[in-house]
Every structure is written in structure tokens, then in C-alpha cells.
Design brief:
Blueprint (H helix, E strand, L loop, with lengths): L17 E3 L8 E6 L9 H10 L7 E5 L3 H13 L2 E7 L4 H9 L3 E5 L4 H12 L2 E2 L6 H18 L6 E5 L4 H13 L4 E6 L6 H4 L31 E4 L2 H15 L5 H13 L7 E6 L12
Parallel strand pairs: 2-10, 3-4, 3-6, 4-5, 7-8, 7-10, 8-9
Antiparallel strand pairs: 1-2
Helix pairs in contact: 1-2, 1-5, 2-3, 5-6, 8-9
Bound molecules: pyridoxal-5'-phosphate.
Pyridoxal-5'-phosphate binds next to helix 2 and helix 6.
């Protein structure tokens, strides 16, 4: 018998389950990878682990701007590694996500939604800290290309025709999408975002008329992030907040999957696409848990 004890929670990241959504989509083949089962509670654990492996040696202080999950993943890793950690978050972030970051011992800076990236940059320059910068670094999508993508492909035994994924920084869809397409060039990759977000116009000829504003945390951006790779994505669909939340509640009540609003958003996107998905095997990821939004969505 071999010991299965992990040296720290960082080694417990990954190998999350893939589950069929047979109750809400009985006539289709749709599966979801439950990334909220990572120890830090979201898909961002993998990205942060990869980014910290690449940080300059001697780093003692890290900073990140985050809609919450990256902050929690970084705060968790900083606790394990003995790093000082500052996280800037939009002041619209759910209180559970803010408290979660603080509970790991990180310093939280609540900022106006337009200022949380700039606030992180100010902290970095004032403190000579290391900025992870998920919206710019190639390490974001590389984490999913090297880790999440191969894991998903193996768990699906290659049985996937369409990968549908919510888009925030764009790291998840770009990294997993690229890996899946390299295994099978026929795999289609479709992004999902709220209305008026910046990504649809990058891959289709439909403009982003109107001002982007959404209550769904984690997906959609006013300005596209450099972590998004348009070359990997075949289409992007947009989903209204009401529909995202409706599907989020159905996920909990019909599948027993208590996932966050961005998971509801991607499921609403799949429901919208369903007539075009007949006979195709669809896979997606659920980035985080509904537990972080109990006071906001449920
Ligand atoms: C809850 C949630 N869903 C989806 C995403 C989108 O993932 P990505 O940034 O890789 O596009 C994020 C990113 O912060 C998130 O926090």
C-alpha cells in the first residue's frame, strides 16, 4: 500500500469529477467538470499554482486583481507558502467571496469595478511586490493547456465534439480549447458571456452594442483580456442574467449541483445552442460553487 497523504492542499488541486447533466438535458449528451471541488473552491487554483511556479525567486509579497476566485486561490497558496498577499476586488463582489479571501489571512482592497486593476498596479509599484496579472500573463491559459485540458480529455476518453465555456479573463476557454483542438481538430469551441461583453465581437461579425453590466460574477468584460485567444474560439453566445440565474437554480434543484452564476450562464448558453447540438457530445466546466453566492443569487 502506498501513502496517499498530500504534503499540502496545493497537491490536492485537480482531478475534479466530470458529471453528466442528464436531468436538465435528458435528450442530449452534456457533461460538466466540477471545478468547485478544488481545495480553494474554484478553477483558479490551477492557474495560481502554475503562476506561482513561475514567479521570480525570492518573492515574498504577491498582489492580484480578481473578481474573487483568483484572490481566494492566491490567498490559499500564500498561506501555504508563507507569502504576504494583497487582493483588489470590485466592490460588487459577493460578501462570501470577500470573506473567503480574508479568512486565509490576505489583505482585501474593495475598489470601484473600473479601478480594481489599476489599484493592484498601484500596490505593486508601492510595495515592490510580484503581480500575477491573470488578464495579461500567458501563464493563465498555459495552466489550462497543460493541466485542465489534458485532464478533461483523459476523463472524457476523447469523446467530445463541442466544448462550451464561460469567458472572463479567457484563460480557461483558450487553454482547454487549444488542447482539445490539438487532440481532435474537429472539436468546436464556443464561449458564453453576458450581453454587451467584449468577446463576441472578436470572433463573430456581431457588434457589442450597449454598455456591459452584469450581476454574474466571473464572466464578461467591458474590454477583452489578452488571456483570450480568438484563434481558438469558433463562436461566442450571449446570455441574459435572468436566464443564467434561472439555469443556476435548476442545476441545484434538478442535478443537485450547487454551482455559481457563471455555471448557470454556461448552461443557459448550452440550452440556447441545443437545436444546433443535436447528436453532438458537449463538455463544459463549472468554475465555482453556488455556496459563494447564497446571499446574492439563491
Ligand atoms: C466564477 C467564475 N466563472 C468563470 C470565470 C472565467 O474564467 P476565465 O477567467 O478563465 O475566463 C471566472 C474567472 O474569474 C470565475 O471567477
Amino acid at each position: 500500500m502506498q501513502s496517499q497523504v498530500k504534503a499540502s492542499v496545493m497537491e490536492a488541486i485537480g482531478e475534479t469529477p466530470v458529471v453528466r447533466l442528464g436531468r436538465i438535458f435528458p435528450a442530449a449528451s452534456v457533461v460538466a467538470k466540477l471545478e468547485y471541488m478544488n481545495p480553494g473552491g474554484s478553477i483558479k487554483d490551477r492557474m495560481v499554482r502554475h503562476m506561482l511556479r513561475g514567479m521570480p525567486s525570492g518573492t515574498a509579497h504577491v498582489v492580484e486583481s480578481s473578481s474573487g476566485n483568483t484572490g481566494a486561490a492566491l490567498a490559499m497558496a500564500s498561506a501555504v507558502m508563507g507569502l504576504r498577499c494583497d487582493v483588489t476586488v470590485p466592490d460588487t463582489t459577493s460578501s462570501e467571496k470577500v470573506k473567503r479571501i480574508a479568512a486565509y489571512g490576505a489583505a482585501i482592497h474593495l475598489c470601484p469595478p473600473d479601478d480594481y486593476h489599476a489599484a493592484a498596479e498601484r500596490l505593486v509599484s508601492e510595495n515592490e511586490a510580484h503581480y500575477l496579472d491573470q488578464y495579461c500573463t500567458p501563464l493563465n491559459r498555459e495552466a489550462h493547456y497543460r493541466d485542465t485540458g489534458p485532464e478533461l480529455w483523459r476523463q472524457l476518453a476523447g469523446e467530445v465534439d463541442v466544448f462550451v465555456c464561460g469567458v472572463g479573463s479567457g484563460g480557461t476557454i483558450s487553454g482547454i480549447g487549444r488542447y482539445l483542438k490539438e487532440q481532435n481538430a474537429g472539436v468546436r469551441v464556443i464561449g458564453v458571456e453576458p450581453p454587451h461583453s467584449a468577446y463576441r465581437k472578436l470572433v463573430t461579425d456581431r457588434p457589442a452594442e450597449g454598455v456591459f453590466k452584469s450581476a454574474i460574477e466571473g464572466v464578461g468584460k467591458r474590454q477583452a483580456s489578452r488571456s483570450f485567444d480568438p484563434a481558438v474560439v469558433d463562436d461566442v453566445v450571449q446570455v441574459r442574467d435572468e436566464d443564467a440565474l434561472d439555469w443556476c437554480r435548476r442545476l441545484a434543484q434538478k442535478e443537485g449541483i450547487l454551482a455559481g452564476g457563471s455555471s448557470g450562464c454556461v448552461v443557459a448558453g448550452i440550452a440556447q445552442l441545443l437545436p444546433k447540438l443535436h447528436g453532438l457530445r458537449v463538455a463544459t466546466v463549472f468554475p465555482d460553487s453556488g455556496v459563494y453566492y447564497l446571499s446574492k443569487y439563491f
